[in-house]
Design brief:
Low-confidence stretches: none
Number of strands: 23
Structural class: alpha/beta
Oligomer: single chain
Number of domains: 2
CATH superfamily of the largest domain: Enolpyruvate transferase domain
CATH architecture of the largest domain: Alpha-beta prism
Largest sheet: 4 strands, mixed
Distance between the termini: 9 Å
Strand order of the largest sheet: 21-22-1-23
Number of helices: 12
CATH class of the largest domain: Alpha Beta
Radius of gyration: 21 Å
Mean pLDDT: 96
Length: 417
């Protein structure tokens, strides 16, 4: 579906939706726990729903409630299951090791770009520990049961492989170690996994390189838990305010381990006025300065930071962005194309995205590429552009933030169908 965004800065007060990343993790822990759990989760999305459906396929009983989810855990091991992960990389990479640890004979499927996204390192690690695969890419079926021992992963591909094994290894009768062979990117996501596990009584020592997992560690339900707000999705409105306007986003934990909380530091570097009070962050536009940032740990907010940088005058450089190529779209190519199509100047090489800001964007046509984050970037760019912006594939926001355009309009954004 195409939508046309009209010029006009957005302002006002919004509430960040529940963190997609933490919702995945909380749901998985609850499904592996010793008794039911009530999860307070203010919002869902297509990716979260994919994890719910797959956990139910594994034997849990999860239902939506007025405040979140009621989770009755998986009972027993073995059996057969079909897991449709849709387009959710987190669902696939987290639940593949879990299904193997439970001894499930399971068929995994997926849609969109998911069958093309990297999986080989995880498949190789699981194959070396007792799991058999019918194919090396989706769709495939698994059989056999995961065994413990030593696991090693390259740190530059996906922290989700590491997290998936962190969920699975405590279920095994043998102890294990899990090591990054090379420096890890997106390390805050591993810390989020460890935090979620600790909330369910599974405490895993981790020194930044190696995790040591004891055998047969029970997941113990806290009875209830709350999914904190999503810094990744909030970043779109906070960056918009730094370009022009004033926005307050509530439900953002100041002590969150989410890596995208670093947006606050980068907004200040950009020159915005940033105020944090309890769970509310207020951003007001002020100076607009070029940025230079190492983005290895914050790939999801690189596109919106790049769009924001178009409105500064001068050259901004975003380094170590190569992992943008393996998202729902090739976001490195997509971000540069979006900026250039709307009258800005962007270019990239294998590891760096460079934006030459002129203080403005023209507007025009923006290809959403079926990617939720590219659509949201285009909407922010469009409200600050000189002319209307027509965005394609706007339904893609359902993957992580179904109410994005509703919130956008609440804050004064102008959208025509």
């Amino acid at each position: 579906m195409n939508l046309t965004v009209m010029p006009g800065a957005i302002s006002g007060e919004l509430t960040a939706p529940a963190s997609k990343s933490m919702a995945h993790r909380s749901l998985i822990c609850a499904a592996l726990a010793d008794r039911p759990t009530q999860i307070m989760c203010s919002a869902t999305s297509q990716d979260i729903d994919a994890t719910v459906d797959c956990l139910n396929a594994l034997g849990a009983a999860i239902r939506r409630t007025a405040t979140g989810f009621s989770v009755t855990p998986v009972s027993g091991n073995g059996g057969e299951a079909t897991l449709n992960c849709r387009e959710s990389g987190s669902t696939l990479r987290f639940l593949l090791p879990v299904a193997a640890a439970l001894g499930k004979t399971a068929r995994f499927t997926g849609t969109g770009r998911l069958p093309q996204r990297p999986m080989q390192p995880l498949l190789e690690a699981l194959s070396a520990h007792g799991v058999r695969f019918t194919n090396d890419r989706l769709p495939f079926s698994i059989s056999g049961r995961l065994t413990g021992g030593s696991f090693a992963m390259d740190g530059g591909v996906s922290s989700q492989f590491f997290s998936g094994l962190l969920f699975a290894l405590p279920l095994l009768e043998e102890p294990g170690t899990l090591t990054f062979r090379t420096p890890a990117q997106s390390l805050p996501y591993v810390q989020m996994t460890l935090q979620a596990l600790a909330g369910f009584g599974v405490n895993i020592p981790f020194d930044g390189t190696t995790a040591v997992i004891g055998a047969s560690q029970p997941y113990r339900s806290p009875a209830s838990c709350t999914v904190e707000g999503d810094w990744s999705n909030a970043a779109f409105f906070l960056c918009s305010a730094a370009i022009g306007g004033s926005v307050t986003v509530k439900n953002l934990a100041a002590d969150s381990v989410q890596g995208d909380k670093r947006v606050l530091e980068l907004l200040r570097d950009f020159g915005a006025e940033v105020t944090v009070q309890n769970d509310a962050v207020t951003v007001r536009a002020a100076a607009r300065r070029p940025l230079r940032a190492d983005c290895a740990d914050i790939p999801d907010i690189v596109p919106i930071l790049a769009v924001m940088s178009c409105f500064a005058e001068g050259v901004s450089r975003f380094e170590r962005v190569e992992r943008l190529r393996i998202k729902e779209s090739d976001r490195l190519t997509a971000t540069a194309a979006l900026i250039n199509d709307l009258g800005g100047r962007a270019e990239f090489d294998e590891t760096t995205l460079t934006v030459t800001g002129t203080g403005a964007l023209r507007g025009g046509r923006a290809d959403g590429r079926g990617d939720h984050r590219m659509v949201m970037c285009a909407a922010v760019a469009g409200c600050h552009a000189k002319e209307p912006t027509v965005i394609s594939d706007t339904e893609a926001v359902g993957k992580s933030y179904p109410l994005f355009f509703e919130d956008y309009c609440k804050a004064g954004g102008l959208v025509n169908t």
